[in-house]
Amino acid sequence: MKPDLQAQPSARKPLFRRVAVIGLGLIGGSLALAAKRSGLVGEILAADRSDEELALGVELCVIDGYGTVSEIVAGADLVVIAVPVRATVAVLQALQPHLAPTAILTDVGSTKGSFVKAVREVFGDLGPRVIPGHPIAGSEKSGVRAARGDLFEDHKVILTPPDNVDEAALEQLARLWTACGATVLTMEVNRHDEVLAATSHLPHLIAFSLVDTLAGEDQNMEIFRYAAGGFRDFTRIAASDPVMWHDIFLSNREAVLRVIDHFTEDLAGLRQAIEAQDGAALLRVFTRARAARNHFSKMLSGQAYVTDMSQKPVRFRLQPGGSINGDIRVPGDKSISHRSIMLGALAEGVTEVDGFLEGEDSLATLQAFRDMGVTIEGPDDGHVRIHGVGMGGLQAPRGPLYLGNSGTAMRLFSGLLAAQPFDSELTGDDSLSRRPMNRVADPLRAMGAVIDTAEGGRPPLKIRGGRKLSGIHYDMPVASAQVKSCLLLAGLYAEGMTSVHEPAPTRDHTERMLEGFGYHVHRDAATASVIGGGKLTAGHIDVPADISSAAFFLVAASIAEGSDLTLRHVGMNPTRTGVINILKMMGADIEVSNEREIGGEPVADLRVRSAQLSGIDIPEEQVPLAIDEFPVLFIAAACAEGRTVLRGAEELRVKESDRIQVMADGLRAVGVETTVTPDGIIIDGGQAIAGGEIDSHGDHRIAMSFAVASLCATGEIVVNDCANVATSFPGFVELATRTGIRIQSEEGE
Ligand code: NAP
């Protein structure tokens, strides 16, 4: 007997009145259970080849009733096909005459191209209410008995809606999946099949094949007795349903073949390396793979091939007041960390780096060199070992080089890659993709490079390889260390001399480090020059603590009463000490001790105590020396007595955000009025800093600056969009808390 085709609808108006599930197995049953639990559906009916499974479904309270396909589809407003993908055409033929025009038709199959093809075959075209789906959740079990109501919790469901999709229908279906605990993503059908071929189908194939090979090698299968946990984990998926997988491989044939070919080619490369006892090649692949494994979630989100609604923003909540005390060392200098990888990769020999900043930016640089065939071990507690490949040893990367949020990396890479024999493409996250790159692309073009940019000179940068570069003399219109470094790096490969004149002093880490690697840089007043065709020799680099990170604590301890803080091993490169010079001019109490030189870079310990600051006219020659520190210097100015005037700082408007405007907006939000000028700002100190809510526009330095402002505030300050702080200052919240800032990091909306 078929119980109860007219099961009781729920009292509330449901999202779907009747859901028809065709194929009551693991996935169909789990969806039925989860949908029931959500309370969003009226009745759930199923059809299946096996009456026994259906009866069991009712007995286990998975479904409310069952019938034939025609019986359950008529009157359903959602029809879910949950049969093996190869059975789809037969099921569609059976349901087609009974499907209401208003019903949504979806499926759960593991391949999507095959479903779309089947719908076209049976229906002629893909209607706007046909929305293919694929839950990325499952198990090796099958049948309704294995169904679980929590199967989709914390898992993704990919929907591949057609271009003409009925948006309301899409939203309705997404709501149901979300209520089942899943995160819904949308993707194109072909992209889905390619991604799944690589990330799911190939691993299953390898697991099946490996277990089969080993079982065949040992007649009694005794061999498995000696297998450890690694083998068990790696081959778990070989216990999956053979029929289902046979279906999947045949349905996703082309994408799977492509990825199998790619894999067998790489496997043959590894075999070859083992045969030839080429340890370096093995190490290169293994370190690259390990790094990719550790960071792949970040890399994937950066590639943004899907809209992932689950990425959570970070918010800082700051209680007012407090004083700053302790003895700390802030993370390693970002600029020096970046350059140590770049020059280490191009050097001959092994370069050891200590104090490396393990922020996302420098890790992206490191990964990019791995993508170009450089073996890099670590980072391991700030230690990195780079096996240099020499000036001509970089290899063509397989795909675009993703540089995250790092403008420095993108500008430096463009100089380096313009001179390589291979084509390359540089991409970054949303914020980097908005930043102008013509300031490097134009002079590089003058050297003979071919570089395409997106509209407005923005990333991605497509760089043509195999160009012969010629040295030029370049007068920088705006002082920029990134542009200078980019051209000097290109100049290493160019014919003749490349010289760059700067209108005001900028950071000289590249020049210092080139010298450290044995490459002579001629420096004559405001001009730096290199002659192409030389080589770099590996060495040891002890990265100093980043003065830009120290700056937040210099200002914090100055403005908070009762503070006494020591900062150790701070980089004191004269092109970077503008923040100390400016703070001292404002009356800050900063004591410099233990001055020494490490790897060409000056380093010192700094002791800073609270002081009454006064407003000043910031000398223009100090501007490039403190360019990244202005956001926090604006906070110092707001807490000072009298007026502070900044001029000649238009560069600030094209940083991670328009730092002048965003800071002015933020200060206004906490009750401090300022006057924004085209190239700077005027801040009258002594206005009370109230509580308020700040939008950091994803700019890490803005976020940290307002964390410092809380020390002098009268109310709670909330800073939104702070996730990027981790990119430049890993451990900021912990260090801030340790020294006395009353900060809490929480998940934003
Ligand atoms: P399952 O537990 O074996 O369930 C499949 C169900 O479909 C069974 O009840 C089967 O009936 C029924 N069926 C087979 N052919 C049919 C036909 N021609 N007409 C009507 N019913 C038919 O498999 P599953 O794991 O739920 O897989 C279902 C779908 O989900 C597949 O397309 C699969 O690709 C997809 N999927 C699976 C997973 C996973 O990890 N398992 C994950 C994501 C997506 P019988 O009981 O008579 O065989």
Structure characterization notes:
With 749 residues, the protein is α/β, with parallel strands linked by helices. Helix content is 38%, strand content 20%. It is built from 24 helices and 32 strands. Strands 3-2-1-4-5-6 form a 6-stranded parallel sheet. Strands 30-31-10-32 form a 4-stranded mixed sheet. It has a 4-stranded mixed sheet with strand order 11-24-26-25. Strand 2 (41-47), helix 2 and strand 3 form a beta-alpha-beta unit. Helix 4 packs parallel to helix 5 (113-123), helix 12 runs parallel beside helix 13 and helix 15 (438-446) packs parallel to helix 16 (481-491). The longest helix has 29 residues, at 189-217. The protein is globular and about 85 Å long. The two termini are 51 Å apart. The relative contact order is 0.08. Residues 22-28, 48-50, 53, 82-85, 87, 90-91, 108-110, 135, 138-139, 142-143, 241, 244, 248 line the site of NADP nicotinamide-adenine-dinucleotide phosphate.
